[in-house]
Design goal:
The chain is of the alpha+beta class and 279 residues long. It has twelve helices and eight strands. The radius of gyration is 20 Å and the shape is globular. The relative contact order is 0.10.
């Protein structure tokens, strides 16, 4: 799906195609505002229950799908935008970096909004929809309204899920995530990541732990584990091939790692998930 910016009302959307009902990824951010209704959404093998007044987001590249959800009973919005669309305004170039809750697979991707938070978040979603559906829609207006919406979302996150990360620490954390995405299959250690960021392992660990509540080594291991789950479920590769693709010394070492992290062997995991999501 080619998206720069799009917003829809959930109650007006047509039935989901099979490709959306099944687990899939996007190269854009996807935000949901559930005014009323109940839904189940699975993101990277974690299930989240969405209820009234829930703001929910999916970062780029995350595997997700709706599960056991009656879409006709949900009211609200779905908003999609790319990083390029948002960053066309140079004034906002650091803003997405400061939103440490986005692109952060180690934190719960939703908020229950208070009545005070509801008011402004709802207003910005309404205004974005009104502008997007005008015969002459102004891109600058959408960018400005999106900035205001994400500013309010950042305030809500800071209130509900506070982090003491400074702007500099947030910037380092996002750089670490980019580095991790590019190198999780190379079996880099915490020291390797720290040295590429010109930091000591202790300093980088302190920043990562402050934002994710997990130490640096655990975050690195969890990213490798997540990719292993994705490959075992959908790639058609054997356990040995997955092991090789993720840079493990041999499949036996990979199997021990996987069982230690999940309590199940990669072979059993592959069989269980392949039955649920056949190719």
């Amino acid at each position: 799906m080619n998206v720069l910016f799009q917003i829809n009302r959930l109650e007006e959307m047509p039935p989901l195609p099979a490709a959306i009902i099944s687990p899939h990824k996007h190269l854009f951010y996807e935000l949901f505002l559930v005014r009323t209704g109940n839904a189940l959404h699975k993101v990277d093998y974690q299930e989240y229950a969405l209820t009234d007044d829930t703001f929910f987001f999916i970062s780029q590249g995350q595997l997700h799908f709706w599960d056991k959800t009656h879409r006709e009973n949900i009211n609200g919005y779905r908003l999609m935008f790319t990083e390029d669309f948002f960053l066309l305004n140079e004034m906002n170039s650091l803003f997405l970096i400061e939103l440490v809750h986005f692109d952060n697979i180690y934190q719960r991707p939703f908020l229950q909004l208070s009545p005070q938070e509801n008011k402004l978040v709802y207003i910005y979603f309404d205004l974005l929809y009104q502008e997007f559906t005008r015969p002459e829609c102004y891109e600058k207006a959408l960018q400005s309204l999106l900035f205001l919406l994400l500013s309010e979302v950042r305030r809500a996150f800071q209130k509900n899920k506070p982090t003491n990360a400074t702007k500099k620490q947030a910037e380092i954390f996002k750089k670490f995530l980019i580095l991790l995405e590019a190198n999780f299959d190379k079996k880099w250690t915490a020291t390797d990541f720290a040295s590429h960021l010109f930091l000591s392992p202790r300093h980088l660990n302190r920043i990562v732990q402050g934002i994710t509540n997990q130490n640096l080594t655990t975050v690195i291991q969890n990213r490798s584990l997540l990719e292993a789950k994705r490959l075992l479920t959908f790639s058609g590769l054997t356990v040995r091939q997955v092991s090789e693709q993720l840079g493990f010394e041999d499949s036996a070492y990979f199997a021990r790692f996987f069982r230690k992290m999940t309590g199940i062997s990669p072979t059993d995991f592959k069989e269980n998930l392949s039955e649920k999501y056949p190719q």
